[in-house]
Amino acid sequence: MTSVGLRWFTGPRRLIGLICKGLMTGLIAATAMAILAGHRATGEVDSPPPKQGRSQPALIRLDETLTAPDSGRLAATLAPLLANPELGTLTGQVADAMTGQLLWTQGERVPMQPASTTKVLTAAAALLTLDRDARLTTRVVTPARSGKPGQIVLVGGGDPALSAAPSDQDSWIRDAARIGDLAEQVRRSGFTPTSIQVDTSQFSGAEMAPGWDPADIDGGDIAPIESVMLDGGRTQPATADSPRSHTPALDAGRALADALGLDPADVVLTATPTVGRDIASVQSPPLMERLRTMMNTSDDVLAEAIGREVAAATHHPQSFAGTVQAVLDTVLNFGIDLNDASLHDASGLSTEDRLTADTLDQVLNTAASSKHQQLRPLLDLLPVAGRSGTLAHRFLDHDTQAAAGWLRAKTGTLTGTNALAGIVTNVDGRVLTFALIANGAGPHGRAALDTVAAALRSYDCETPTSADGLPVGEPPP
């Protein structure tokens, strides 16, 4: 069985690396520096990452004779770190990426509050069901039947990235569609609008999930989930950590009205599907760009929108309940044990969500397997420790810096909850997958969890241990 490694060069910086079993050159692209989203409620990073040089990834063949991991030695390595009370109640699982062998477990089948590591399942379901180049279309329609002459309808297609920013300015996500482009197409169509209606019929059900805190809207983490939104509900289109809007669909209609010189106060919403003639349309960024931003910045609105794409593709309602069922069914049908998973959203923001470390690690271990190429890009979507996304400012202190550049993981943080699920190459060049979930954590729980994860990088396979976890040949203390 052949394994290959991915070397990362960032300008004059030292060599950093990530090694993933069976990765193919065509599936791995340079990690782009993502715009960081403010995640106040979930504790994700909200300041810009350090500047990097140009990434130049290269694949290298690994030594096939690498020492197999020794579970006893790993348990001995982790034991003193797991005693830190700041962790709260920690569950976890570590497995060998090459063989799938479990190397360490602790409460791995106990359902825990997973926070944003839930996005690992959402991303996996998207990769398994959707075209990676798929784009969502937002349309402007002249309705076949209308009680108002000159009325046009802005029809939401589920794209939360539609931006109010001018075309010559950056948005919070690359390649975003622009409301200004819609307005220009309407003007060129020759139709003279007099009023605007916004069609939100594509999504159904509640706009906020069970377990969501409305305060997180003003806090910048979430917005009511509607089928047409501006900048993910942000009130400031180019600011990643902007406060969000309580009326995102109405905002989109008002922005179009303003661009067309109409009165924004006259814009109304409708939940009835519109039939008519298209006079303008714009498209979202491709799925992979949206997934990359979702995973790197841990954007909850993007996660919910992508979850609804999975729901539509699998013939489920585009609601919270339909999305959850679609994601879980897709992952279960792929052979992942869900271990009594209970989800209420696709983002992990709900305080009522429950997943196990075993489920998360199974997804990542499957992605690392040469047998399942569909999930392989999931590894490339994960933030890099000390380098990108929500891990840009983590794994940089004395106790954890050895893992910087060698560990990739999806983060998850809620009040009292810290989680990491990802992949790491240890000092012997062995690739490990892992999932760590801590509930009831102390104020320094995230740092304590990073220390545990960093130990997976420093873990030395070479010295075998006896059943009591002591190196063979060494007397007990």
TrEMBL record:
InterPro entries: Beta-lactam/transpept-like (IPR012338), Peptidase_S13 (IPR000667). GO terms for biological process: peptidoglycan metabolic process; proteolysis. Pfam families: Peptidase_S13 (PF02113). Keywords: Carboxypeptidase, Hydrolase, Protease. GO terms for molecular function: serine-type carboxypeptidase activity. The keyword Mitochondrion does not apply. Belongs to the peptidase S13 family. PANTHER family: D-ALANYL-D-ALANINE CARBOXYPEPTIDASE, PENICILLIN-SENSITIVE CARBOXYPEPTIDASE A. This is D-alanyl-D-alanine carboxypeptidase.
